[in-house]
Amino acid sequence: MTAILKNFIGGEWVDGSGVTRNINPSNTNDLVGEYAKADKAQTEKAIAAAKAAFPGWAQSTPQVRYDALNKISLEILARKEELGRLLAREEGKTLPEGIGEVARAGQIFAFFAGEALRLIGEKGASVRPGLDVELTREPMGVVGMITPWNFPIAIPAWKIAPALCYGNTVVFKPAELVPGSAHALSEIITRSGIPAGVFNLVVGSGSVVGQTLLDHPDVAAISFTGSVQTGRKIAQACVLSNPMKKFQLEMGGKNPLVVLDDADLKTAVEVAVNGSYFSTGQRCTASSRLIVTEGIHDRFVAAMAERLKGLSVDDALKAGVHIGPVVDQSQLDQDLRYIKIGQDEGAKLAFGGELLQRETPGHYLQPALFTEANNNMRIAREEIFGPVAAVIRAKNYEEALAISNDTEFGLASGICTTSLKYASHYKRNSESGMVMVNLPTAGVDYHVPFGGRKGSSYGAREQGSYAREFYTTVKTAYTYPG
Ligand SMILES: NC(=O)C1=CN([C@@H]2O[C@H](COP(=O)(O)OP(=O)(O)OC[C@H]3O[C@@H](n4cnc5c(N)ncnc54)[C@H](OP(=O)(O)O)[C@@H]3O)[C@@H](O)[C@H]2O)C=CC1
Ligand SMILES: O=C(O)CCC(=O)C(=O)O
After folding, report:
1. For the segment 355-396, what is each residue's pLDDT rounded down to a tens digit?
2. Pocket of ligand 2 (CB under 6 A)
3. Which member of 14, 157, 333, 473 has the greatest number of CB atoms within 10 A?
4. Residue pair 131/147 in contact by the 8 Å Cβ criterion
5. E strand spans, 103-239
6. Domains in the chain, please, with CATH?
7. What are phi and psi of 46, to 5 degrees?
8. Could you tell me how far CA 459 lies from the centroid of its own chain?
9. pTM, to two decimals
């Protein structure tokens, strides 16, 4: 029997009113841990603690914030192997992917430690004689964070680090499916020297803990990453709440990768395999539409099938594994449902899509590649969020670009080409927030903005110094010196 890991509210570790079990998707007999679930009253306590701590933290010096964020970064980086293992065990990313994600979280805290020192206001001349105008940024207040299961430490890091950096206090609700990394990160944050109440962890369901954050008048802002359906509910709740809340939403994608006749075939296949299938395709930036021009189409499909045959799908913690399991039974059911939908729609399942048996009972799915798909099919329009990609044939670059942009989403897009002309044209004309040339659509730097257009994102960008748009509010002060 292991101890039930607690929530962190007002500077104390507290028991919950229920328990959530964290199950290893590579081996469903393996219980990663048990975590206390907060209820509505405990979430309200966390909000009250964050509210009480806000004035003090908002006034803290940049040095205090730098020291805390830097300390968090150093501990995460020093423990990246151990934490990467926990992440891979609870979410199903491979061990190298898990360690990579943890390292990224550490680097994000280091970046925002530096940002705490760089927040300087502006002073300008007024259009009216004799007046001074000053622009300063102030923190928002209590920020509620609602995060998904697919990046259990990086996404919390890129919300919590800027929130603390700019002087906000935090109530953090991780996805119930992956509380382990969230709990480990929270422990590290509690050791950073920040005052009680500045950071609070409340594990629990979206419908209870999430909803309480949305309904509460003392929560000034909500940062959310997850599905489009939940994103819409959050937007409505934030607008209808009194006072209205600031919110930012990072949601789905149906990201295109265009492969042109002049692409280097080997590069295109590596880019497509990485973008579509690594991290089990469970990335909002995953390439799920492979838009391939006539002259390279057949060679690309043959090379993809060959490459996919060589990939190992197995326990996320085993050495040499390329693709871990699907995160849980419900996501696996969704993937299988879409594989059936694709076949019923008339696309050809050129590779994979079968359930796999391994030594341990886990949610193992062979990566699936559809060909002969068109952009009107549901598999080309709806986010599947699994290791499933569809090849769509295009006559030429112009048609490929039109198909690429014909989607309700606009998170990431990519092109494989050796032509400077097409690469430049695509960068300018692709309707997405992030464009990649000869690189996978997934996998981004941590010091530059992350976010999309159309149905993928709403509100200010995350990451890099652009994050300050969300976590601060601008004050314009006029002075007449007399
Ligand atoms: N774009 C992306 O990055 C992601 C997209 N998805 C997509 O979403 C699908 C479902 O995944 P899922 O994890 O269920 O995504 P959700 O959008 O349901 O969950 C994301 C977060 O929102 C919380 N939440 C759910 N309902 C509410 C609510 N009414 N009020 C406040 N918070 C709420 C969840 O809590 P909890 O789950 O703990 O109840 C979780 O912390 C996937 O198949 C995929 O298509 C999923 C994850 C990331
Ligand atoms: O592509 C990445 O590295 C980040 C993707 C991401 O944030 C997501 O899938 O939610």
Report:
1. 999 999 999 999 999 999 999 999 999 999 999 999 999 999
2. 150-151, 155, 225, 283-285, 442-444
3. 157
4. no
5. 122-125, 132-139, 142-146, 169-173, 199-201, 219-225
6. 7-251+456-479 (3.40.605.10), 256-437 (3.40.309.10)
7. -65, -40
8. 15
9. 0.97
